[in-house]
Amino acid sequence: MLDESSPTAVEAAVSAAKFSAVQATRLPLQHRFSAFTLAELLVSMGVLVVLTLLATQLLNSAAKIITHGHGQMDADSQARELFDRMAIDFAQMIRRSDVDYYLKSSTTANDCRLCNRQRGNDQIAFYSTIPGWSAITGAQQGPVSIIGYRINVSGTTLSNRLERLGEALVWNGATSDTRSDGRPASVIFWAPLNPWANLTTNPFDIIGRDVFRFEYYYLLKNGDLSSTPWYATSSVRGLQDVSAIIVDVAVIDSKSRVLLSNSDIAGLAEDLADYNGQAPGGSLAGWRATLDGNMTLPRPALSSVRLYERSFYLSSASLGSP
Fold first, then answer.
1. Span 224-232, mean pLDDT?
2. Is the pTM higher than 0.70?
3. Where are the alpha helices (H) located in the chain, listed in sequence order?
4. Cα separations (Å) of 242 from 95, 229, 313?
5. Cα–Cα distance measured from residue 243 to residue 229, given in angstroms and rounded to the nearest whole number
6. Predicted local confidence at residue 233, as pLDDT
7. 25 Cβ partners below 8 Å, 6+ apart?
């Protein structure tokens, strides 16, 4: 042990004190503050801008996909509801040789007074055992209605939309009332069936608010596809030669419809060609090619058009044969 009074001890104490002072003086210098350089800030801001742009593009793409998907689901829903309604109406169609029809056919039909070739959107009307609307009430109500389908061409807000007619009739002789077109409101099969004679008071309902093209043709019992409902003779004969009615429709969703005027939609429907002997699906393929080749109308509206086809097989003749 060193003697504190010795010179050696004093020198050691002085050295230790000096070292501690120097160490105490240098300690704060070991905790220096660091900061980003200007280059680092610029790089960080650039990366942030790029990430923001990418996120915006992703959100926009997701919004477009969602909107497109909703439009497709809406069109699918309309087509499904329409075809379900048609299936019920066609299944209950009265098929007798003494019943008049309003059909697409050649003008040579000798038992279909208003059968004719139909250019563009088609029309169809027939008797069916389906409940319909009637201003006449009471026990005389019959089980038969006039059912019809066509595209509305009134030029109003209902224009270029598929409408359905469902007019109930009463038994022949039960009433002397007449329909809005002056014909008897009772079941008289031989009377020419012209459901479109008066458009103001007949019970029409819009069943396909975005359906703007309606086309149909026949599958005959011999296997042929035809725009004429027979293969044996030039007569309808209660559609005895028809096995099924095949329906094609074109639907444009509501948001895309606003991009087109009524005249644009009517012109587009005219561009979609009539059935001309194609195999099932052939008409829709031709329609799609026409839509893809259209360079006049807005592309977003054309790309949103959905095409559908369904076959409706007919039951055997109903209510007996005369």
1. 90
2. yes
3. 7-26, 38-91, 254-257, 262-271, 282-293, 299-303
4. 10, 6, 9
5. 9
6. 80
7. none
